[in-house]
Design goal:
Elements (H helix, E strand, L loop, with lengths): L40 H4 L1 H31 L5 E4 L3 E4 H27 L17 H17 L6 H13 L1 H8 L21 E3 L16 E6 L9 H8 L1 E5 L8 H6 L4 E5 L11 E3 L4 E3 L6 E3 L5 E4 L8 E2 L1 E3 L5 E3 L16
Antiparallel strand pairs: 1-2, 3-4, 4-5, 5-6, 6-11, 7-8, 8-9, 9-10, 12-13
Helix pairs in contact: 2-3, 2-5
């Protein structure tokens, strides 16, 4: 008869001891218990424990230094600085320094905590029976006792160097988040209220890049200008021209209706901000018969013969005017900055 016909014959034979007696386990699900505890070198040698303590303190101290480096990098590196780092190639110096320092700060706190737990905290395994979810007063008392015992075994009270450096690292690393809040955007301060125009700055023709003379501006023409000293290859040119852009037209003095406009003009030459007061689009359409300028984005229309007031469209207020004059050499120059912020309306205008 084959083993397939008699399955009992294919079962493994029962193992016997030296006397041929079979060893049986009456409870195959019995708790095998925990393996015997093996002490670490730090448990036996205080010098090894001191070495581990110094390692943990070093990691926490390194975390503090990295956090300080994070804050210093945020202040020291400009946002547009690019450096070459092998093998990454050309990268942002600010992003690289912030990522490296913050990563080191967080890694050292974690590595220090792990090394502390693995070498100095008690590693004796304690088994506890399952208990009902609702805690009894006895269980609560036991939890508190275990907590106190764990705190005592962690040696946090005795290892003052670890405690001090850990608290220092944990206290400093949140500052990284505070500094990151500063990166939500640049503080505008008064930069939105002022431009590069100032008394004595020449009006530079944006087409010829030459200073403008009064005779260069003829009746019916529209000229775009920018302040002296601003160059198109400057890294912040687009930021500045977004506020400094100027349009110049010449109107017969008797056709100027606004008294202030006549006083701020020079022989009928008026200078207004080119930036629409609706959403900041550049104005470029001029109708010489009516002296109206039109914003191509949303059709806001301004009357340059009447203080550049709004006569149509969603713009909220008139275009700011720049007071101009002529210097001793006959060149048009600014006599100050705009008397109000250029561009879209500020919220406090509402």
């Amino acid at each position: 008869m084959s083993s397939q016909e008699n399955p009992e014959e294919s079962l493994p034979a029962e193992q016997g001891d030296a006397h041929g007696e079979v060893a049986r386990n009456d409870d195959p699900f019995a708790d095998p218990g925990l393996p015997p505890h093996k002490p670490r070198i730090q448990d036996l040698d205080e010098r090894a424990a001191k070495r581990s303590e110094r390692v943990v303190a070093f990691l926490f101290t390194l975390s503090m230094l990295a956090t300080v480096g994070f804050i210093a990098s945020f202040v020291a590196f400009p946002i547009d600085r690019i450096v070459y780092v092998w093998p990454l190639g050309h990268v942002s110096a600010l992003n690289l320094s912030l990522g490296m320092t913050l990563g080191i700060a967080l890694f050292c706190i974690g590595a220090g905590a792990v090394h502390w737990a693995r070498t100095l905290m008690s590693d004796v395994e304690v088994a506890d029976e399952r208990h009902p979810i609702s805690a009894t007063p006895e269980v609560k008392a036991k939890v508190m006792a275990d907590f106190k015992a764990g705190a005592q075994e962690s040696a946090i009270g005795r290892r003052k160097l670890i405690r001090t450096t850990m608290f220092g690292a944990l206290a400093l690393v949140p500052l990284s988040g505070v500094v990151l809040l500063r990166d939500l955007g640049p503080l505008p301060e008064k930069r939105l209220r002022t431009t590069s125009w100032a008394k004595g700055k020449l009006l530079i023709n944006q087409n010829t890049m030459e200073p403008l003379r009064a005779e260069d501006v003829v009746v019916g023409s529209l000229t775009f200008a920018m302040p002296e000293g601003l160059k198109e290859d400057d890294h912040d040119f687009n930021t500045k021209i977004a506020k400094d852009a100027l349009m110049i037209v010449r109107i017969q003095p008797d056709e100027i209706k606004d008294k202030k406009q006549r006083e701020w003009a020079h022989e009928g030459i008026v200078a207004y901000s080119k930036i629409c007061t609706h959403v900041g689009c550049p104005i470029s359409l001029y109708e010489q018969q009516t002296h109206h300028v039109l914003c191509p984005c949303h059709q806001s229309t301004f009357d340059l013969s009447d203080g550049a007031r709004v006569i149509f469209g969603p713009a909220g207020h008139a275009l700011p005017q720049l007071r101009i004059g002529v210097n001793g050499e006959g060149y048009l120059e600014a006599l100050g900055d705009f008397d109000e912020p250029v561009g879209p309306s500020f919220w406090e205008r509402g």
